[in-house]
Amino acid sequence: MRHDTLASPAILDTSSLPLEVAVVVPTLNEAANVERLIERLSLVLAGRGWEVIFVDDDSADGTSDLVRRIGRTSRHVRIVQRVGRRGLSSAVVEGMLATAAPIIAVMDGDLQHSEEALPNLIAAIEGGDADIAVGTRYMAGGGIGDWDEGRARMSRFATRAGQLALGTHVSDPMSGFFAIRREAFERALPRLSAIGFKILLDLLASSPEPMKVAEIPYRFRTREAGESKLGARAIADYAELIADKTIGRFVPVRLIKFLMVGGLGVFVHLAVLRSVLGAGSGFVAAQTAAVMTAIAFNFFLNNSFTYADRKLRGGAIVAGLASFYAISAIGALANIGIGTWVAGQQERWWVAGVAGVLVGAIWNFAMSAALTWRK
Ligand code: GDD
Ligand code: MN
């Protein structure tokens, strides 16, 4: 071991031991924190075979380069650098897939999760029969630190929502600090949503049979360097995760979003129709303007809401919009054709209307998924 070349003398290299535990750390602009985190991990995990895997979404502050530099002298330290990708949960899943360790811990890279609790999390799995050990803030010995009342209340509300929707009794299902047995992770893997940032909730809800959970208290620390990344988008992602884990079993959440956008498009259509007619235009011209506007409206809202994760930008928008117009035109023909056919089969006019709309909408959804927003 060449300690003299280590980035920090506190990072001891004991990497010749068999690998027992991997710590997966998602990072986005945490260059000010990772070195201290590695030092602290090497203290609390001393004597074990361990590694830490940073999964960095190409941070602008050079987090990946910094981790690589430390990794050149300590085999405990690894990096997965993702380019053109975003998302805490998916980063954690990729980190978990990148290790051979039998126990995988997950913690934040900003020193808010207290590493002193880490050995307890690991011990609960090694020593006991828990599949997963969860660091909890809501238990004697734990705490939420100095969150303001607003964030504390929001967290309590989201915690209740998660517990109710998923029928879990874990006291802190929102925690980003836990350790899991590799087999338990692998059993949940095929059903993971990996949306947003609540990977623990996702793992618990995706397990084919309920996981055996141990709870270990910890105190959530104040962030000292860098800033929190969880804003309004995180709340929308959370709602989507809950939807995916509940109704998502029956209908894809993306289809629901697409239909919601389509519903709003009807209002846009009517508003344009009314104002163009009001301006003295004939019906054909007004209806044409309304259709064209509503399709464009649907395209842009689907692009930033339904397909936020595959959003078309720049020049791709022109091609995307053109394909969406073409698809919608065929969808409209299918709508009319099916509607007419159903109207000939039975008496209720509205059944025919709804049938046409549904077939047209499903056509639009399927074709735009395959062409406009193809992967
Ligand atoms: N790779 C990657 N990609 N990492 C991310 C991303 C992302 O899109 N967004 C955030 N991170 C990293 C941050 O760099 C940090 O290491 C960690 O994920 C947590 O992000 P913060 O922005 O610090 O979140 P927080 O402190 O508001 O909330 C955290 O702690 C709560 C309590 O445990 C999260 O872990 C919550 O899920 C958790 O409830
Ligand atoms: Mn944080």
TrEMBL record:
Q: Where in the cell is it found?
A: Membrane
Q: Any keyword rRNA-binding?
A: no
Residues annotated as transmembrane? 255-277, 283-301, 322-343, 349-373
Presence of the UniProt keyword Transmembrane in the record:
yes
Q: What is this protein called?
A: Glycosyltransferase family 2 protein
InterPro entries per record: DPM1-like (IPR039528), Glyco_trans_2-like (IPR001173), GtrA_DPMS_TM (IPR007267), Nucleotide-diphossugar_trans (IPR029044)
- From which source organism is this entry? Sphingopyxis jiangsuensis
Q: What is its main location?
A: membrane
Q: Glycosyltransferase 2-like domain location, by residue?
A: 23-187
SUPFAM superfamilies membership: Nucleotide-diphospho-sugar transferases (SSF53448)
Q: Where is the GtrA/DPMS transmembrane domain?
A: 257-373
